[in-house]
Write a structure and sequence with these properties.
single chain, alpha+beta, four-stranded mixed beta sheet, 37% strand, flat
Length: 71
C-alpha cells in the first residue's frame, strides 16, 4: 500500500547483481512478441529450446565470490 517500502530497499547491499536473465522456450519469438507491449522484451534474453519443448528460466549473477548461474 501507500507509504510502504519494498522489501528489496530494506536489505543490505551484499554485492550481488543480476547480470542476465535467460528464458528458454520452444517458441521464443512468440514469447518475445508478448513481452514487447509491456516493455520487457529487452530485459530477457530469449533462446529457442531444442525439439524436446523444454522451458527454463536462468539467472546469471555477479557475486563477491564470482559468477553464479541459477537454473
Amino acid at each position: 500500500g501507500a507509504g510502504t517500502t519494498h522489501p528489496a530497499e530494506r536489505l543490505p547491499d551484499v554485492g550481488v547483481r543480476l547480470e542476465r536473465l535467460i528464458g528458454i522456450h520452444p517458441d521464443a519469438a512468440a514469447v518475445r512478441e508478448r513481452l514487447e507491449p509491456i516493455g520487457l522484451a529487452d530485459r530477457l534474453a530469449l533462446e529457442t529450446s531444442a525439439s524436446d519443448g523444454e522451458t527454463r528460466l536462468t539467472a546469471e549473477l555477479r557475486t563477491p565470490a564470482g559468477q553464479c548461474r541459477l537454473e
